[in-house]
Design goal:
homodimer; 3 domains; four-stranded parallel sheet; elongated; DNA-binding; Peripla_BP_I (chains A, B); Lambda_DNA-bd_dom_sf (chains A, B); DNA-binding transcription factor activity (chains A, B)
DNA sequence: GCACCCAATGTAAGCGCATACAGTCAGAGT
DNA sequence: ACTCTGACTGTATGCGCTTACATTGGGTGC
């Protein structure tokens, strides 16, 4: 069922009555081979089911023909549906409320599109795409040995590792605000996007206080968004009665902090640094019986699918994930083509998506 | 920024004052090297930022250390949010109803988990995971040349291509009912799952007719599910007044057919072969003012996220996608370890998830 | 003190392919 | 008829690593 008898150039060459160089040429530079020869060789290739070894090709050609994308690792699995998968037969569970989340949120919503964009662009350029998920610097080394260029989602790997890798192959860093490293950098316009949505929220907010859920203090992205909120607050006149929370990027955090704030008085707006926090805020507001958006408007950031499907649909700032993926690959290709070009530091535009949770004025 | 000066074993060996064989041993079989030597070599590896070339290793070792997963290709991109991504700055759009879908449904909901499972398992076994998306037999050849084993989602590649590849390396076919090919096969228990959910639907159905949305006639999966419905109908007494539709797997199809059926009289149950169809049925029922589940119950199949978030939440049969991914890799590893083992043909269990659209009795 | 053995390391031979370089040969030019 | 040119094709080398086999040198047992 799986004999390790893969044919090589030698087999093809012998059978076609040519040298291995000709076989190689037929595959790499077909126009350099006489048509009759080419056809004969291709026929043998077909007949033998010959597939060139990427290893040999990579070694001889000093390039692997693959590009890498390194994303944060998966969370542990803890899924009631999945857990069953070890048994047999059919199991029936009661999940009437649809609460049995499959614990994937972040990954599926955020990275799948990135991956799609990257893969599409890699394919266009004739490269394969190899993805790796962050599980320590070791795993990225493994990836690095297999590719001609590497796109790394920020915060998955230490700065030192990035620098070390960058000395070996083209690297582009994705997202994250930092860009002190001597590598190409690609991010979204967190600050402007956040400012835009925050200004809108402040403009249409209800009568209560403003709550800012600003996210982790050690996240460069969160920091830029925080700055965007400051811009918006400043633009709306000196000091607002804004409450502020620095913390996790989780839905639970959003719910807790919003509930706490509500205990201190009515809220007129919740401005969250990501969609998870905003969804948590929605949870708390609905629990407390506060009408969204009539009494309190809510905004998020990221544009995950769950925000769209929330009730009410969540106003947010959509990141162009697919475009990010595409651009990351393009940046990589540009550097591969021209190693000495100036370090790029691109910002991708974002889109404020106005939905029911904070509708147009 | 990207000097092509990657250090090799020779550099490390020279600097550490050993032979390249010793360097290789330190990395492959550390226990075979004296501790003092090992430490000296590792120090140099660290210092030079040495990363072994996967190509050279693959060529010399006759294995790439990578496994492949081949999934259906991406759909064309047609996304109002994404389309903006070529400009700059911040754009604002009005999507109050949350209808600006990002056109990813299938991919994100279905394959991300598969990918996660596969990757997790590959990582555990010390393999890298390479994913490829179906764009013709050519692209899978490219993948095949890079990996030690290949998991292929059925219906992405022709049977001939699968056979050809299987002659070269271990292959496992995922999903799909067919299994005539001489390769390992892995699927879910479509029939039993469908029978279980259909029996439940028939048991709790409303007073109207039963509509079966059976999916494409050329899909092996759909055929198995169709059989499951037949089983359920038979178990519920000979002939039911069931209407039947064979066709696409899309939401629009579900909506259309359900609307047509409703025009002919009230429905008591809609049993769909996948979640997209079921969601379409929900659309049509809500349009028509039919109460779900009071008047008509609805069931789907797959367990995509959107089913959980639908209103009402959709009763469905969840596939253990992550477990499928894991098992696919395990199957591959088993065959790599023992090429002559018997062809495996495993069925994974499914979970009927009862939600509001067809609640427990 | 000598033959032996084993642990540690070195030597050398490829792995399958790309490619620089060296033919070969038919037709063009003189 | 002879050289020259260019289109094709063959020869030979090496990419960076793994690994079978050879070598070395210190114990061990007698």
């Amino acid at each position: 069922m799986a004999p390790p008898n893969a044919p090589t150039v030698y087999d093809v060459a012998e059978r076609a009555g040519v040298s291995i160089a000709t076989v190689s040429r037929v595959l790499r530079t077909p126009e350099a081979v006489k048509q009759s020869t080419r056809e004969r060789v291709l026929a043998v290739v077909q007949e033998l089911g010959y597939v060139p070894s990427a290893s040999a090709r990579g070694l001889a050609g000093r390039r692997t023909g693959a590009l890498g994308l390194f994303i944060p690792g998966h969370e542990a699995i803890d899924d009631p549906v999945e857990a069953h998968a070890t048994g047999t037969g059919v199991r029936i569970i009661d999940d009437r409320t649809g609460s049995a989340s499959r614990h994937r949120g972040f990954r599926a919503d955020y990275f799948d599109e990135l991956l799609r964009g990257a893969e599409l662009e890699a394919w266009r350029s004739g490269h394969a795409l190899m993805i790796g998920a962050g599980r320590g610097d070791g795993s990225i080394d493994d990836l690095a040995g297999r590719v001609d260029g590497l796109a790394i989602v920020a915060s998955t790997v230490s700065d030192e590792a990035v620098e070390r890798l960058a000395a070996r192959l083209p690297v582009v860093l994705l997202a994250g605000g930092r860009n002190e490293l001597p590598v190409d950098h690609l991010a979204v316009d967190n600050r402007a996007g956040m400012r835009a949505v925050a200004e809108h929220a402040l403009r249409v907010r209800g009568p209560g206080a403003v709550l800012v859920l600003a996210g982790p203090i050690d996240s460069p992205d969160a920091e830029e968004r925080r700055q965007g909120v400051r811009d918006a607050l400043a633009a709306h006149g000196a000091r607002l009665d804004a409450q502020h929370d620095d913390g996790l990027f989780t839905r639970d955090r959003g719910r807790e902090r919003t509930a706490e704030a509500l205990a201190g008085g009515p809220l007129g707006a919740v401005i969250a640094a990501n969609d998870q926090l905003a969804l948590g805020a929605l949870d708390a507001l609905l629990d407390a019986g506060a009408a969204v958006p009539e009494q309190c408007v809510v905004t998020g950031f990221d544009g995950i699918e769950e925000a769209r499907l929330a009730r009410p649909p969540l106003t947010t700032v959509a990141q162009p994930m697919e475009a990010l993926g595409r651009t990351a690959i393009r940046t990589l290709l540009a550097r591969i083509a021209e190693p000495q070009r100036a370090r790029s530091d691109e910002r991708m535009p974002v889109t404020v998506v106005l939905r029911e949770s904070c509708p147009p004025a």
